[in-house]
Known about the structure:
Structural class: alpha+beta
Number of strands: 16
Radius of gyration: 18 Å
Number of helices: 5
Helix content: 10-25%
CATH topology: 2,3-Dihydroxybiphenyl 1,2-Dioxygenase, domain 1
Largest sheet: 8 strands, mixed
Amino acid sequence: xxxxxxxxxxxxxxxxxxxxxxxxxxxxxxxxxxxxxxxxxxxxxxxxxxxxxxxxxxxxxxxxxxxxxxxxxxxxxxxxxxxxxxxxxxxxxxxxxxxxxxxxxxxxxxxxxxxxxxxxxxxxxxxxxxxxxxxxxxxxxxxxxxxxxxxxxxxxxxxxxxxxxxxxxxxxxxxxxxxxxxxxxxxxxxxxxxxxxxxxxxxxxxxxxxxxxxxxxxxxxxxxxxxxxxxxxxxxxxxxxxxxxxxxxxxxxxxxxxxxxxxxxxxxxxxxxxxxxxxxxxxxxxxxxxxxxxxxxxxxxxxxxxxxx
Length: 309
């Protein structure tokens, strides 16, 4: 929905100022949900996805294989055990990854207005040059680059990938202290967006569960939203969705279609055991192979994977 997305971009640009002037919290009160380290997206054709991202986004293949039984169980997606997975990362080598998992998207289905995760926002070095590169690519441009009004350091475009992944590609034209400026032509994911049936409840969840603060709720003519602050230039954007919005489609034993799961660093891993949908496992996919990983369900139905750090 480009019109709504442009409105959200404009508001989002103003949100860093909401955190200006705040003191550094004492260590024991510091937020425990850290940087975004992975976004898991379902796709029907992994070869097409890999080609598009390596050829046009200059991403590199970090891993190519199959989903292990223990990982599938930790996601409560047993049907995905043995299915293909490709893990891609930016050319810069920054430790935030896109994990595409083999799961077909039903014909005609779009997760755009489903609750839970729905957009992956990635930093880029130059959105004008990226726009030219993507014109004749497997990516569909849904909105060309444009400066965000009154914030002339942001120039963003929107696109959809061959797996149906919905992307916001943002050029941060000057260094900002809380935004992850790209370190390669196409950088890493620094914002994930979700639709919530109850925005205040979602914000309360992240505050009560992890101690992460949010910006004030912005009440725009067509949407309300807020941003939860993470580490390392990362954020979660939460949009209030209208009454009647439905959860994303999730086939039996599979993951939610589209942006299925987001992985975060977490410094309070054991504190959340009661919410884990399965026992923790040793991660066998990036990020942080060998560290404990577990998945929980957020108030909008979103899958949140925690990495013990």
